[in-house]
Amino acid sequence: xxxxxxxxxxxxxxxxxxxxxxxxxxxxxxxxxxxxxxxxxxxxxxxxxxxxxxxxxxxxxxxxxxxxxxxxxxxxxxxxxxxxxxxxxxxxxxxxxxxxxxxxxxxxxxxxxxxxxxxxxxxxxxxxxxxxxxxxxxxxxxxxxxxxxxxxxxxxxxxxxxxxxxxxxxxxxxxxxxxxxxxxxxxxxxxxxxxxxxxxxxxxxxxxxxxxxxxxxxxxxxxxxxxxxxxxxxxxxxxxxxxxxxxxxxxxxxxxxxxxxx
Length: 262
Fold this sequence. Notes:
Radius of gyration: 17 Å
Order of helices and strands: HHHEHEHEHHEHEHHEEE
CATH architecture: 3-Layer(aba) Sandwich
Largest sheet: 8 strands, mixed
CATH superfamily: Vaccinia Virus protein VP39
Strand content: 5-15%
Helix content: 25-40%
Keywords: Methyltransferase, Transferase
Organism: Actinoplanes subglobosus
InterPro entries: SAM-dependent_MTases_sf, SAM_dep_MeTrfase_SAV2177_type
EC number: 2.1.1.-
Oligomer: single chain
GO biological process, one term: methylation
Number of helices: 10
């Protein structure tokens, strides 16, 4: 892809997500794909908002547990509250590294992802399928103290890695150099709550955005070798629910999530 090519003529997962959350950083192709998805799953924006709350809950939980270094892989378009805003309000000195490989995300991240505390916030242009490139980047190799725990967050990104073995391998390679006490937080697409969700998954794939839906057991397998925190892998609105999670229809939330420690 040429530098700066936003590929506005084809749908992009981050821009579809942005449109469904009511954002303005999207194009006609994204809006068409999103409207097709809403025909199958009209509650999709509810799911996306629940997933955003899940991100905020888990990083707040991990910051409260004393983690001060966060590696967020598959950042997507900035949508407040962003991960560093949640973390640095709890721990102003925390270090956050965002990772994505989309030029539109990069443009917005550079403009919007500025620290709210004294810790650093940096953006790495890299592909999650190349873990060693991420780990070797200065922001991680020099910016993190790998004698202290790191939280790896992969929120709503692994559904784009279709092969289960490849997904587990990516996680394993990213977690390998992180010390004991480090954490893995992830969420991933499911349609176990509502078979109609299969139509939305199909729409993604037909529009050139690879997506796979996983079962609860399939998402639990992504945490293999790590110690899951209660309540384990659950629909994201059931993970340590806040007031906004209460009353949310289970059939409208197409994401499982969980947190585990190394």
